[in-house]
Amino acid sequence: MIALRLVKDGAVVRETVFRSLPVTLGRGADCDFPIFDDSVSRRHAVLEHDAAGVLVLRDLGSRNGLHLGPQRVASLPVAALVHCLVGTVELEIEPLRDSDTLEIRLHDWRNLERRRGARAHLRTLALGTAGWLAAWVTEPSFWSPWEKGRTVTLLSQALAALVGLPLLGVLLLVLLKAFGRKLRLADALETLARLVWLAPLVNVVSFVAYYPLSSSAYDALRGLVVLAALAWGAGTLAAIRRTGNSRLFRAAWAAALLVLAAGIGVVAGLSHDKAGEPELDFHVQMPLGSFAGRSETLDAYFAQLSLAAQQAAAEAATERGKLNE
Question: Which of 42, 113, 142, 241 is most exposed by smallest CB count within 10 Å?
Answer without folding.
Answer: 113
